[in-house]
Amino acid sequence: MDFDDTPDEAAFRARVRGLLDAHAAELLHVGPGEESIDARSHEAELRRTQRVLAEAGLVGITWAREHGGQGGTLVQQAIVAQELARARVPGLINHIGIGMCGPTVIAHGSDDQKQCYLARLLRADDVWCQLFSEPASGSDLAALRTTAVRDGDDWVVNGQKVWTTLAHVADYGILLTRTDPDRPKHAGLTMFVVDMHAPGVTVRPLRQLGGQADFNEVFFDDVRIPDSERLGEPGEGWRVALTTLMNERVAIGGAGTDIGQPVENLVAHARERLPALDHDRQVLARQAVGRAVVAALAARYTGYRRFTVLSQGGLPGPEASAGKLTGTIAAKLVADAGVRLLGDDAVLAATADGDDRWQRTQGWLPGISIAGGTDQVLRNILGERVLGLPPEPRLDKAAPFSGGGSARLGGRADGSGS
Ligand SMILES: Cc1cc2nc3c(=O)[nH]c(=O)nc-3n(C[C@H](O)[C@H](O)[C@H](O)COP(=O)(O)OP(=O)(O)OC[C@H]3O[C@@H](n4cnc5c(N)ncnc54)[C@H](O)[C@@H]3O)c2cc1C
């Protein structure tokens, strides 16, 4: 493995740094110690930041030029992500649109859909969300129950989605529905683009442990979607969803993500707080910091392994699942050590000077163990795909959904997404 940039990559990195410096005054930045920004309260600035970056050629790096992208490589995309983190620019508001919805429209959309949506998506003129999970189908995604019934030139949609990140600020979503319950569960699905402002769409934010509301319940009551907004053929929704899920895997676990900044924050926090702890707590806190830093190094080197696959032109396979798993474990250990360093203040929502970042981070991290494939599902994928262990039983693959083929294993859990 060669961890250094090639001369081309170094030149590209220097160009990206130059552009970020030149546009610094127009971009939103995360404050010291912060790691994320709430989309609802900073929606306008986040949209503006993405537009500025898009105009500078720093968004849609791997998208083809004909779709408004830069025609670049996954390594270049990872370099941009690293430089944005270094410059403390928050994640793009339309990261789900760019990472998952846009690539799905590119692969399965009509020319009109591409023309209508892609350029606006890159500039965050429209924000997108992914409407897949339901109360009774997450890992077992293909068991979903939201229906779409053909009515003239439209489809009429009824049902409920849940955990829909960004639905509260989204203009469009990709929506997976059941259009034929008499076929086996993977075969009776159809995908659509849905206008989130259409009559009958209700978005209810879900308040999380840390107080913020990043994701939502979304209800569909007789929502009409024109047939021209279908993505792929009727009954081909699973094939279309696999495009989204494969891109989700690369977006979450596949490209140069690093938790370097949170570790630096932890070490600075340890320098400050350790002396105030009594001897026993100091020993435990030191061990927690040590464990977290080791886990972060493991995540970093797993990340370099993915990076090497990418720079040699490959697509990450199980490395992406391993990357998400190691990154999640490390991030949780970092947050736990940060809270432990607070001593008695750990039981408070914030320290006396109002600092709540460690408690807040510890509060939202469990969600990362679930989003885009749970830790258990990722371990199943690694067991089957890397270790060659026997696969899980999948008894309902051929049974009609309406006849009971609805409540067993499949979907994200069968390794088709991370
Ligand atoms: C922060 C966050 C953001 C999200 N954003 C979105 C979004 O934008 N759009 C969207 O559609 N969804 C989103 N989700 C939903 C997410 O994809 C699902 O929560 C996830 O796939 C798990 O599904 P579930 O919640 O139904 O849990 P379940 O699938 O019911 O799992 C419950 C438990 O059973 C375990 N389990 C399930 N199947 C297996 C198996 N085969 N083997 C071993 N263990 C298993 C799981 O690991 C878990 O511990 C988000 C979730 C979170 C937490």
Could you explain how this protein is built, in words?
This protein is α+β, with helices and mostly antiparallel strands and 418 residues long. It has three domains: 7-93, Acyl-CoA dehydrogenase/oxidase, N-terminal domain (Butyryl-Coa Dehydrogenase, subunit A, domain 1); 128-240, Butyryl-CoA Dehydrogenase, subunit A, domain 2 (Beta Barrel), CATH 2.40.110; 254-371, Butyryl-CoA Dehydrogenase, subunit A, domain 3 (Up-down Bundle). 43% of the residues lie in helices and 13% in strands. The two termini are 25 Å apart. The chain binds flavin-adenine dinucleotide.
- Oligomeric description of these chains: single chain
Indicate the CATH class of the largest domain.
Answer: Mainly Alpha
Mean pLDDT: 89
Bulk shape = globular
Outline the low-pLDDT stretches.
406-411
Sequence of strands across the biggest β-sheet = 1-4-5-8
Elements, N to C (H/E)? HHHHHEEEEEEEEHHHHHH
The total domain count is 3
What class do helices, strands and sheet pairing give?
alpha+beta
**Separation of termini?**
25 Å
Question: What integer value in Å does the Rg equal?
Answer: 22 Å
What name does CATH use for the topology of the largest domain?
A: Butyryl-CoA Dehydrogenase, subunit A, domain 3
The amount of beta strand, in percent, is 5-15%
